[in-house]
Amino acid sequence: MLTLTDLTKTYRSGDKALAEVSLTVPKGQVVGLIGPSGAGKSTLIRCINRLVEPTSGKIILSGTELSGLGTRALRRERRRIGMIFQEYALVERLTVMENVLSGRLGYVSFWQSFTRRFPPADIERAYRLLDRVGLMEHADKRADALSGGQRQRVGIARALSQEPELLLVDEPTASLDPKTSRQIMRLLIEICDERGLPAIVNIHDVPLAQQFMQRIIGLRAGRVVFDGTPEQLTESVLTTIYGAEDWTAMRKDGEADRVAEAEAVARLAMISA
Amino acid sequence: MTDFPQTWAFRSPRARLALWFGWLCLVALFVYCWQVMTANTIWAFIWDAPRQAADIGGRMMPPRLSYLPELLVPLWDTLNMATLGTLLGVILAVPVAFLAARNTSPSLLILRPIALFIIVASRSINSLIWALLLVAILGPGLLAGIIAIGLRSIGFIGKLLYEAIEETDIRQIEAVTATGASPAQVLNYGIVPQIMPAFWGITVFRWDINIRESAILGLVGAGGLGLKLQASLNTLAWPQVTLILLLILLTVVVSEWVSARVRGAII
Questions:
Q1: How many domains is chain B built from?
Q2: Any idea where the ABC transporter domain is (chain A) (predicted)?
Q3: How many whole angstroms separate alpha carbon B106 and alpha carbon B119?
Q4: Which CATH class is domain A28-53+66-272?
Q5: Which residues of chain A neighbour B267 with C-beta distances below 8 Å?
Q6: What is the ipTM of this complex?
Q7: In chain A, % of residues over pLDDT 90
Q8: For the whole prediction, is pTM greater than 0.95?
Q9: CA distance B178 to B201
Q10: Given an 8 Å threshold on Cβ–Cβ distance, is B179 in contact with A91?
Q11: In chain B, which residues have their Cβ closer than 8 Å to the Cβ of A116?
């Protein structure tokens, strides 16, 4: 369980990226974080594992307060938090296997990681995860040889190899096409279900968030302006989050995407039949 | 409807004036330099130059091939001097580069300026000068040449490498940090893979340059082909000089080919 209390981040330029954000994510819940660009979604996620240092407030992950930890203790706690990035953030010149095993860096000595001699249990787990995300035969390819969807699967496997208690997911589908986006979201949701893993997912695509998330939090100018179920996300709520816009048109777009996807699947099925 | 102007100037009048003034200064400098140059030139020698060149050229031909066996050991010395010097340069330059790069330097206020100073100092002194100093300190021989090459290489490798480190993709490093990796592991998994192509490219390129430089270091007593070149020049043995120059050319062509292949293979 993750609890944020009055989390605030003010950048040195004086910009207030987050203002007294308080929320609780119980075990197994997948939360979608929506809001316009610059609303503080990325900052919020990065404050939780302190890639960005929060200015004030508390972050408590299953009983441990992360906000006051020293560097060594922080590293130990980061192992419990898996992170999945926009544009994958794989180490492009390392192999898929090295990328997945890099999720274990917090658990092995420098020498073990330097010589790439990871414990057998880690290697077995890495292969199991690659099999789970459907990339078994790509294990020894370099990460930059894979397609966008495949790279994001490696990103997921890397985060899971940490055996995390919480997943932070930053715009996982920002650079993927609509169909691959849905596949990646589905995979993420399935995996969270299998493991009872809570997750916070930054997502700018509202229809996608409504389709996949159990709970949605709307952020505007660093403040939580909505916290509820996807069904409660009405047009007037969207206007509070994003400002005035023709939301029915946007939903129709989403509908068109879905129809196109269904058609593509049907056509593929015909071709392969 | 509003009327829009039909003229648009790329530069403001001020900028145009400054540009013209700049060109004027350049021309004036050229005229002045030309005057200085001609004042100290003995023109009789210049008119004579083609004949002199033809004369020396005639005496240089044909190269004395029988001198080749005597050159093989100095050639081997030259190659060793370049290779060991590059190795020394790399060993010293890598830590300096990590200290100098803004994103990896442990202290921006103290260590970074020191590292930058080392780089500048090494770059500003030609390896021939390094060799001259070292021959005076260590006495003539290969060791002085190796150290001279190494010291000169620190600046070159250090500068290019620290620029490569600063250009690494922050997101890949962030992703490794987020797993709970220690700083040494972040270096090993996040930064090193990203700079590997640059590192090998720079090293091989510098080795290639060092072969050329080590061939002449013998002129100041640091051993290798240069020593033979100096001896031949002193005794006016022009056919030997030709052979040495051809040998240097051949070596450089081969090293160029090797470095192109290596760079092609790693990128």
A1: 1
A2: 2-246
A3: 17
A4: alpha beta
A5: none
A6: 0.84
A7: 29
A8: no
A9: 30
A10: no
A11: none
